[in-house]
Amino acid sequence: MDLTEHPLVRKLLSLDLALGDYVVAGSGPMLAHGLRETVGDLDIVARGAAWKTAVSLAEPIPAPSGHGRMVLLFGGCLEVFDRWLPGSAEPDELIEAAEFIQGIPFCPLREVAIWKGRSNRRKDQEDLALIQRYLNGNGLKGEQGD
Fold this sequence. Notes:
By secondary structure, the protein is an alpha+beta fold.
């Protein structure tokens, strides 16, 4: 699958965010690994120049988690956060740990599994099962030995 053809990824790339200053979080990494064909939106954690670009396009509002701020772009299709969920790593750590898939920085699936594992939402539990099956059955696609 060519990620650059996905409508949400195209919107993300159109922002021309500073590479090295953002990472795709949420369910986006599942899309990148082919575990989901659709996602409702893309969640992006940004810092520095990437965050400045986001706030130049829309006013930041409190994040639904109560942790940090977010900017809604393209009618909410892209949600850009200045920090991720409570209890998760700081933005710098998340961004530095990104894995690049087709030139786009995504949070590693192991990180996604941690967040989804903390959630009681049925969707997140279903996603967690998919991620665990993928990580256990696919030899981690180059992530072994971490």
